[in-house]
Design brief:
With 239 residues, the chain is mainly alpha-helical. 78% of the residues lie in helices and 0% in strands.
Length: 239
């Protein structure tokens, strides 16, 4: 536990010293919500939480997917490998630090919700459930980001992450209500769609079990791919 916490602290300090990464990642979803989300015509609470999910998804795609792929060969990461932490501790610490930052990126939406009435009419218990659904989805998509980070080539990481980020956001209807018609299963079975459905049910005070099971499946799948990717990198690059 001591090594895990020390590693999380290292990860947090490393990211806090990158304001050029943090500020755009934190402000873009907020600006998008203020200019587009508020006028989308969807239920205010659902729209607000979906844009918070969009902010968290960005943290997973770019902090993990792009960040790990771009820096896994640099001297700092080689130094980190020399520290007394197991691969499991290292991956879990990365995930934990990522969730902390994802929550940080989503926190401006709490202020915006209070200012613009996004929480109006939603009982406190439903808000608590929706917040838990938000963090659950952040964990799943954090594992997705880790999997991408350990498998994407360093130079292709950014364009590939963009190709995944925006379609996933659209499939999850994170920008506002979307009528998918006959393509509805694509929404239902996508990780962001299940995340959005879980949040929607939570805002009505219930738990969407099918969405939760779909997210659990993605969590297992992405975790396994991330571990395999980490071992591949460890064997082919560091040895």
């Amino acid at each position: 536990m001591r090594y895990l916490l020390a590693y999380v602290r290292l990860q947090l300090l490393e990211l806090l010293r990158l304001p050029s990464f943090l500020i755009p990642m934190a402000t873009f979803p907020v600006l998008l919500y203020l200019t587009v989300g508020l006028r989308s015509g969807g239920p205010p609470g659902q729209t607000l939480f979906n844009y918070a999910a969009f902010a968290m998804l960005g943290a997973a795609m770019f902090q993990f997917g792009v960040g790990i792929a771009a820096t896994r060969n640099d001297p700092w990461n080689l130094y980190l490998l020399s520290l007394p932490a197991s691969p499991r501790q290292r991956i879990f610490a990365q995930l934990l630090a990522g969730v902390v930052f994802a929550v940080l990126f989503a926190s401006p939406f709490a202020v915006i919700g209070m200012l613009f009435g996004g929480f109006q009419g939603i009982p406190p218990t439903a808000l608590g459930l929706a917040s838990a659904a938000l963090v659950t989805g952040a964990l799943v998509h954090g594992c997705l980001g880790l999997a991408l980070g350990y498998w994407l080539p360093s130079r292709g990481a950014l364009p590939i992450a963009n190709l995944i980020y925006f379609p996933l956001s659209f499939l999850g209807a994170l920008f506002g209500p979307v009528d998918f018609g006959p393509w509805q299963p694509l929404h239902t079975w996508s990780p962001t769609g299940a995340w959005s459905d879980l949040i929607a049910a939570a805002l009505h005070g219930s738990v969407a079990i099918p969405a939760l099971l779909i997210l659990a499946g993605y969590l297992l799948l992405c975790s396994a791919i991330a571990v395999l990717g980490y071992r591949r990198v460890q064997q082919t690059v560091y040895r």
